[in-house]
Amino acid sequence: MSPMQMYGAMSPTRIHPILSDLHRTPLAYDLSPRLPFSQSATEPALPYLEITHPRLPWKLIIQPTVSRGSTVTVADILAGIHANLRTNVTALEFQMAGGDPMDPGRQQRVTAAYQARCSRIPYGEARNKELKKGLKRIDFLEGVNMFEGLANTKYGAHIWCLKTTALTS
């Protein structure tokens, strides 16, 4: 029996409401009840999730943290997305971004997103340090990096699409 069958993924899977793309305000929830971060991210609970985004050439693989057990929680999703998007981009990955003849300006837009991200850091040592780190996966979102939620896909109960929007001032 596959892990997905063991966790009941053959039935319709729902994402935790705080992670759903159906709400339109980023992470809007009432602070008065118990925080949902330790709750299962899906119903039924799953042992891992793959998160895709149309602007990212990578799948973000989200697994439970050792301390939380064998199912992915809301906290695992949020921390996993953050950690994945803070990963440095290799020269080869950046080169691949420019290899799409249907999108010849991709590298320039990714570079502009990197520069814009670094420019939001106040001048000084912190900005210089971030500039030296180079491109990160988040820069491939081209500034469309505010979390809106996760939407289900037709590819399986464990594959979700990350929905993002541009930062508004």
From TrEMBL:
InterPro entries registered for this protein in UniProt: DUF6699
Entry-linked Pfam families: DUF6699
Superkingdom of origin: Eukaryota
Residue ranges of every copy of the DUF6699 domain listed in the record: 23-154
The protein's name: DUF6699 domain-containing protein
